[in-house]
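Before the break, one more example. Copy the sequence into your notebook; we will annotate it together after we see the structure.
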Amino acid sequence: MSEPPATRGDRPTRERVADYVLAHPGLHFNELVRRLDLAPGQAQYHLRRLVRADRVVDEEVSGRTHYFDPGIDPIERERLALFRRETAREAVVELLDGPARPDAVAGEVGVARSTLEHHLDGLVDAGVVEKRRDARGRVTLALTDPEATARSLRRIEPSLPDRLLDRFTRLVDALLE
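Here is what the structure looks like once it is written out:
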């Protein structure tokens, strides 16, 4: 279930932004703007100051800037940012059941193999997923640390706009096949 947009209340905007980032680690810039109902320039202004004051950390992952509590480990930050994307998150959830072939994961997630591979690139680079080859060269996907992955997944609740964007991407991908 999607969270409602953050309410304005009487708190100063910068405090609202800081509190929201700390409560929702890994949100990307556009999602933060939507949820807090801020103008992009206003959000940039406050986020820059929060980053300079070391109250928030910004990190670019796969072309999007995500925001975190500075106390979150850099490895965890990358995982959380990746798991904010529905396709990557669903692929990882499938792999919690154990190693699987890429075609099976793509089928379960409901995406083309090329779309899955795109998301796997980031997951492999982050050390979340590994590709194992058997003697015949066939690939099997496996989580490198299922327990850490499950802990990270519990911290993420995707928003409705995130889910809709991911589903639109899937639709376009299916139309292009």
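Residues 1-72 form a domain with the Arc Repressor Mutant, subunit A fold (CATH 1.10.10.10). Confidence is low (pLDDT under 50) at residues 1-10. Try to locate both features in your own notes.
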